[in-house]
């Protein structure tokens, strides 16, 4: 049953990765001649990637799990492409405003995206490590892209140091797992030393928890999001989270799927579940409580994204059933739209004064009157983040929480619902300021086209999912829920 | 006929879209919208909705009672796996009553708003929100599934928030709006858990989840008793938020910061009754949940009395009416808690008339005395504002329970079912509710006539010299509502007085299943008892009025002397039993401290603010970044990471 080493199917499966990676290289090279064309090149690369994704086969496993292309990875790659498009929309106006338009920026973004693509389509530990590094290293650079801003450099440095740390932890875990089982393919692990294996899985997970900014592995996130250029913060809050949760879903469903892979279940369910529960509780509560007193809106959004990771953790706990892949994926779709939208508004308001961004909430007084559309859009994004119907955020939460109750996690759901009630407070605070009387030092509003496109796309997504959580209506895309559910059917 | 249902719902939404877009465009062009245009658009929606609903009502009358049902499928909302939710509209006698109240009283208040908002800039936005509110309220009463109901439920909360904070320049109002929204969210937390519990238990015990109310009703017997009680209690927590019951009533008095027509529409006539409506809609559930019903009964009765006590000493005209609303909502809860769902809804119906009339009358008064709201500075307005005065008097007598005005019939019905009702879980609960409700009735007559005497009777107050009657846009709605307040009761004349109680018969098909459950009353007690209770009710109304007259007309110094005599009691009641302060100390403050002191101080201020300042002095480039990395703080982060990892390994392995 040895699969072919190469063939037309594998080639077609590789195409999306090749397109993005080669595109990233070419875009970077373009910097030597026509550096202003970076955006055009990146858009072209993403467009070709969309085509490559549409033509990709739905079930390919090759090279000891180094390449696993199933519906799950396809769905996640599509989400990542969406996040990348949003980031591109936000990037160009910000770069232009700050006089930093360079093709390398887009090249780095695409490199990072190629790492994310790999991350969600592999079960091979070495490949995961490679993908994590490919994802992270360009991001370290991009976080420090606003070179004149101290905080940007600080963010890059912090992310780099702590990121390396987490990579090392991951690598240690991978080594232990390999030592225990003699293979680096998660799907092929049969038997081995239990203690070694369990320690390996835990270290592995901690590496992922760090990337997902789960409490208590989150300390870097607020500083980094705050310091990084806004489009990059948005990219980290959306794309990195999507990729990491994709990977977590895959790994945890292997680790917990005792029936399917008896030997792969290194994690003792009884011991691991309380830990996951605590992480979920801590992540949502610390995220929400910290967001409560933030005056800086970007920082508030950073903590809010931590809180949302906490809700997502509900879906990772099997309880009396299995990992809720559909719930998590659906939530990520909603989360992508509302978070990208909120960051687009912030980006439009984040003109620098004396080299740094001024994003305290009182500066936004009256913005809602000066730009009615922007005000309305921000209100809807925040209302959706708080989980109020009829918006995407509500259905995401509804499905996730209901799934959790079905699996007997009632206590956790009570905490989660309380948390989301609490979150309303700080989301509404921003809305209140948006509709207050203008101050004498009003925030500068950037009306660039890119911001508007991003806001319109995000708004369409939030409302579309809110009003028709199921129907996507477009030919070829039958049903969002069905799509999501079909995607997780390829998990163990 | 089916199409009409959708139009009833959509028309206000169209008004919202037109006014909203026009207001946005006007803001962009820095122009003012003509009031004629915005008011016309805003009033057209509810008026047409009301006419359509009337037409539906006419058709229903021609049908057999069991055929009075229209269902319209709008679209398939979620359809996947085990979950299927359709957006369906459902009109039955219950929802039609609510639609008529919402669109009818709502429409009248829209017209009134056109007068009230004449001098306010931004009326386009105001009318847009008002229409949006109507849309969500209609969605709430017309939706056939709990999920649709919940969407409407959250939607009206959002509009209430937007409208309370209508003058956002004013932080006080913005804060009141936020408080209303957040307190409601605490209730919604219970509501949402109730929905989740129902859906997931039906999936577990019955096979296949559903949120359609009709299907839940058909399958509710499959559920274990504990689940039913639990779900009923959780849903009731939601109702305590929206319908301002103990302990979540605190937002409603503050919500009076909004414009007066908004108080009339949202915080008196419609939105706050959503909780009562929801319980009536889920009557099949509460019938099977005697313990939860007892809780509803007692909370309602306690709220009725408690709020009436507070109302008796308030000096702000709108605050008195606000606490009066809380108290009246308590009565409605007694009704539905006693299993007499028709009686509860009947009180919703009559209350909408007299309370809207009182609020609009108060608005007319406030308008006439140039914004003053302190009733101690008013007086003698009856001669100056005869139309406002007469309509206010009629509504006051109605709420105080003077026959044959509407409040007499509906309140009497509720007290009667409480008196003769039984409760399987807590046998003394209905009687206790009756005692509390009767005491509250004395107070109701007292505080309402106190308000009336202070504002309209006696000599001129310091603020009332210049007052004059308001224009017809104010008074015509008042007359309409006062007529309703006077006459609405005749729809529900009880059998003991030779009436047919047409209101109860009208609702009978909806509550049919609910009649053999916990505590349906009227069959048990004789007409004689009912007549005695009625006589008692009249005596109570007279007593309360007499007390108010004695204290505030004949002997105006007596209240002050009483206050000096019992200062502690007086202050406690006047300051609303310090409930807000208690909540602040017990709930709000600790959360703030936790957030600000602990998390913010330790994680944020120290690390970020301190460091960024330090970093500012260092040179740029790689060297400072490295130095920074050595400054100990990234090490803190790394340390936390490692400690957490060690903890994790220790716990799991």
Spell out the blueprint of helices and strands.
The complex is a heterodimer of chains A (492) and B (653).
Chain A: H1 8-30, H2 38-54, E1 60-62, E2 67-69, H3 71-97, H4 103-119, H5 125-143, H6 150-181, H7 194-212, H8 220-227, H9 230-256, H10 269-292, H11 297-314, H12 325-348, E3 352-353, E4 356-357, H13 367-370, H14 372-385, H15 392-406, H16 410-434, H17 449-467, H18 480-488
Antiparallel strand pairs in A: 1-2, 3-4
Chain B: H1 2-29, H2 35-62, E1 70-80, E2 83-91, H3 93-116, H4 123-142, H5 146-164, H6 171-206, H7 213-219, H8 225-242, H9 251-255, H10 260-269, H11 274-281, H12 283-287, H13 290-311, H14 317-337, H15 341-368, H16 381-384, H17 386-400, H18 406-420, H19 429-456, H20 472-487, H21 502-507, H22 527-554, H23 558-565, H24 567-574, H25 579-617, H26 622-630, H27 633-652
Antiparallel strand pairs in B: 1-2
Helix pairs in contact in B: 1-2, 1-4, 2-3, 2-4, 3-4, 3-10, 3-15, 3-20, 4-5, 5-6, 5-10, 6-8, 8-11, 8-13, 10-15, 11-15, 13-14, 13-19, 14-15, 14-18, 14-19, 15-17, 15-18, 15-20, 17-19, 17-20, 18-19, 18-22, 19-22, 23-24
What does this structure look like?
The complex is a heterodimer of chains A (492) and B (653). Chain A is an all-alpha fold and 492 residues long. Chain A has one domain. Chain A is 69% helix and 2% strand. Chain A is built from 18 helices and 4 strands. In chain A, the strands form 2 sheets. Chain A has a two-stranded antiparallel sheet with strand order 1-2. In chain A, a hairpin with a 2-residue loop joins strand 3 and strand 4. Chain A is globular. Chain A starts with 7 loop residues before the first helix and ends with a helix. About 1% of the residues of chain A have low confidence. Among the domains of chain B are: 282 residues, no CATH class; 75 residues. Helix content of chain B is 73%, strand content 3%. In chain B, helix 15 packs antiparallel against helix 17. The interface between A and B is large, with 75 and 75 residues.
């Amino acid at each position: 049953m040895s699969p072919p080493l190469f063939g037309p199917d594998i080639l077609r499966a590789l195409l999306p990765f090749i397109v993005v990676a080669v595109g990233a290289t070419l875009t970077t090279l373009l910097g030597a001649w026509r550096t202003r064309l970076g955006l055009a090149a990146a858009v072209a690369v993403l467009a070709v990637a969309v085509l490559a994704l549409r033509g990709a086969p739905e079930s390919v496993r090759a090279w000891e799990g180094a390449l696993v292309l199933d519906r799950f990875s396809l769905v996640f790659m599509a989400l990542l492409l969406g996040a990348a498009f949003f980031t591109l929309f936000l990037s160009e106006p910000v770069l232009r405003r700050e006089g930093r338009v360079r093709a390398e920026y887009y090249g780095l973004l695409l490199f990072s995206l190629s790492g994310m693509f790999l991350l969600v389509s592999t079960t091979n530990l070495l490949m995961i490590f490679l993908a994590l590094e490919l994802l992270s290293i360009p991001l370290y650079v991009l976080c420090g892209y606003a070179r004149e801003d101290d905080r940007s450099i600080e963010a890059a440095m912090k992310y780099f140091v702590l990121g390396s740390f987490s990579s090392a932890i991951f690598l240690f875990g991978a080594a232990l797992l390999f030592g225990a089982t003699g293979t680096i393919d998660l799907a092929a692990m049969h038997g081995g030393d239990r203690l070694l294996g369990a320690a390996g899985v835990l270290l592995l997970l901690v590496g992922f928890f760090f990337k997902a900014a789960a409490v208590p592995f989150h300390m870097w996130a607020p500083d980094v999001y705050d310091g990084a250029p806004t489009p990059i913060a948005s990219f980290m809050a959306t794309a990195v989270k999507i990729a990491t949760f994709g990977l977590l879903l895959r790994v945890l469903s292997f680790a917990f799927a005792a029936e399917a892979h008896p030997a792969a279940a290194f994690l003792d369910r009884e011991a691991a579940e309380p830990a996951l529960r605590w992480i979920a509780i801590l992540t949502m509560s610390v995220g929400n409580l910290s967001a409560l007193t933030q005056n800086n809106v970007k920082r508030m959004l950073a903590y809010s994204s931590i809180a949302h990771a906490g809700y997502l953790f509900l879906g990772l706990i099997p309880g009396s059933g299995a990992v809720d892949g559909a719930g998590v994926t659906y939530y990520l779709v909603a989360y992508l739209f509302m978070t990208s939208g909120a960051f687009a508004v912030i980006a439009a308001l984040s003109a620098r004064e004396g080299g740094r961004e001024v994003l305290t909430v009182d500066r936004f007084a009256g913005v809602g009157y000066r730009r009615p559309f922007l005000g309305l859009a921000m209100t809807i994004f925040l209302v959706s983040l708080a989980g109020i119907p009829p918006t995407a955020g509500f259905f995401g939460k509804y499905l996730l929480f209901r799934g959790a109750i079905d699996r007997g996690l009632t206590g956790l759901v009570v905490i989660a619902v309380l948390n989301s009630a609490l979150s309303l407070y700080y989301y509404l605070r921003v809305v209140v300021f948006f509709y207050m009387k203008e101050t004498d030092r009003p925030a500068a509003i950037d009306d660039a086209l890119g911001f508007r496109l991003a806001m319109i796309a995000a708004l369409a997504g939030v409302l579309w999912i809110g009003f028709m959580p199921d129907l996507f209506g477009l030919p070829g895309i039958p049903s969002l829920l069905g799509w999501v559910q079909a995607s997780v059917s390829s998990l163990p | 006929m089916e199409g009409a249902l959708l139009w009833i719902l959509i028309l206000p939404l169209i008004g919202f879209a037109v006014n909203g877009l026009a207001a946005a465009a006007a803001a962009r062009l820095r122009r003012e919208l003509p009031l004629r245009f915005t008011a016309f658009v805003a009033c057209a929606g509810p008026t047409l909705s009301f006419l359509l609903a009337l037409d539906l009502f006419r058709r229903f009358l021609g049908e057999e009672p069991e055929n009075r049902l229209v269902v319209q499928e709008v679209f398939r909302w979620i359809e996947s796996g085990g979950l299927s939710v359709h957006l369906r509209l459902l009109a039955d006698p219950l929802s039609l009553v609510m639609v008529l109240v919402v669109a009818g009283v709502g429409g009248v208040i829209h017209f009134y708003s056109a007068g009230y908002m004449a001098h306010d800039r931004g009326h386009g936005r105001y009318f847009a929100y008002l229409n949006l509110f109507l849309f969500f309220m209609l969605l709430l009463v017309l939706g056939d599934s709990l999920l649709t109901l919940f969407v409407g439920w959250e939607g009206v909360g959002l509009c209430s928030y937007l409208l309370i904070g209508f003058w956002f320049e004013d932080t006080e109002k913005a804060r009141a709006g936020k408080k209303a929204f957040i307190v409601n969210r605490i209730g919604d937390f219970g509501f949402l858990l109730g929905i989740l519990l129902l859906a997931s238990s039906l999936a577990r015990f019955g096979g296949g989840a559903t949120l359609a109310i009709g299907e839940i009703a058909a399958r509710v017997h499959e559920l274990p008793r504990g689940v039913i009680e639990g779900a009923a209690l959780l849903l009731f927590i939601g109702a305590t938020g929206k319908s301002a019951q103990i302990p979540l009533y605190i937002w409603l008095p503050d919500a009076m910061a909004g414009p007066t027509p908004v108080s009339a529409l949202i915080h008196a006539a419609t939105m706050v009754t959503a909780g009562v409506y929801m319980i009536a809609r889920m009557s099949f559930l509460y019938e099977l949940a005697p313990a939860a019903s007892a809780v509803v009964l007692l909370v309602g009765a306690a709220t009725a009395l408690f709020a009436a006590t507070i109302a008796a000493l308030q000096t702000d005209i709108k605050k008195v009416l606000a606490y009066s609303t809380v108290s009246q909502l308590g009565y409605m809860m007694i009704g539905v808690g006693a299993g007499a769902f028709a009686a509860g809804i009947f009180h919703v119906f009559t209350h909408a008339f007299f309370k809207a009339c009182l609020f609009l009358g108060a608005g007319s008064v406030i308008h006439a005395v140039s914004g003053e709201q302190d009733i101690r500075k008013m007086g003698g307005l009856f001669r100056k504002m005869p139309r406002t005065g007469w309509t206010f008097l009629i509504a006051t007598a109605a709420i105080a329970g003077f026959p044959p005005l509407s409040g007499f019939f509906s309140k009497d019905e509720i007290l009667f079912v409480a008196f003769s009702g039984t409760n399987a879980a807590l046998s003394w609960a209905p009687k206790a509710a009756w005692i509390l409700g009767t005491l509250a009735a004395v107070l109701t007559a007292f505080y309402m006539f106190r308000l009336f005497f202070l504002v309209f009777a006696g000599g001129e107050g310091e603020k009332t010299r210049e007052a004059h009657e308001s224009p017809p846009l104010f008074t015509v709605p008042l007359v309409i509502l006062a007529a309703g307040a006077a006459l609405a009761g005749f729809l529900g004349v009880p059998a003991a007085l030779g009436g047919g109680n047409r209101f109860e018969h009208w609702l009978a098909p909806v509550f049919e299943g609910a009649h053999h459950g916990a505590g349906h009353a009227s069959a048990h007690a004789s007409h004689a008892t009912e007549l005695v209770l009625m006589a008692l009710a009249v005596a109570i109304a007279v007593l309360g009025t007499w007390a108010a007259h004695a204290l505030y007309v004949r002997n105006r110094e007596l209240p002050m002397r009483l206050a000096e005599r019992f200062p502690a009691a007086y202050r406690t009641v006047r300051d609303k039993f310090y409930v807000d302060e208690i909540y602040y100390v017990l709930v709000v403050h600790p959360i703030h401290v936790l957030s600000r002191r602990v998390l913010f101080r330790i994680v944020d201020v120290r690390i970020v603010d301190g460091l960024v300042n330090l970093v500012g002095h260092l040179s740029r480039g790689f060297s400072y970044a490295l130095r920074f990395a050595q400054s100990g703080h990234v090490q803190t982060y790394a340390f936390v990471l490692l400690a957490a990892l060690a903890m994790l390994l220790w716990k799991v392995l």
